[in-house]
Amino acid sequence: FIWKYFPDCLVSALEYSPLVIDVAHRFFYLPQDPRLKVICEEALHFLRTPPKQQEDLILVDLYISKGMAPSVADPDFFTRCD
């Protein structure tokens, strides 16, 4: 949505599963575009690494087959989103 309707935005998307990334490209036509960077990494690990750039907006949708992802329960998670 953001990539399509906000053409001036650079979008970085995190996904833990390489299979989900592959399915998104093959079946849902996730674009290969310089404005879209897809990173295969666990979200909390990504947040704990030194930032390469400042993010203006973070959208969180961290669910696994059994419910909320464990990262969201870690008190450090939302602190690092600040």
SSE order: HEHEHEEHH
Topology, number of strands? 4
Q: Biggest sheet, in brief?
A: 2 strands, parallel
| Percent of sequence in beta strands | 15-25%
| Rounded average pLDDT | 88
Treating each run of at least 4 consecutive H or I residues as one helix, how many helices? Answer: 5
Give the overall shape, derived from the CA principal axes.
globular
Structural class call reads alpha+beta
Helix content: 25-40%
Query: Residue ranges: pLDDT <50 for 5 or more in a row?
Result: none
Question: Which value, in Å, is the CA radius of gyration?
Answer: 14 Å
Distance between the termini: 23 Å
Order of adjacent strands in the largest pleated sheet: 1-2
Brief synopsis:
The protein is α+β, with helices and mostly antiparallel strands and 82 residues long. It is built from 5 helices and 4 strands; from the N terminus they run H-E-H-E-H-E-E-H-H.
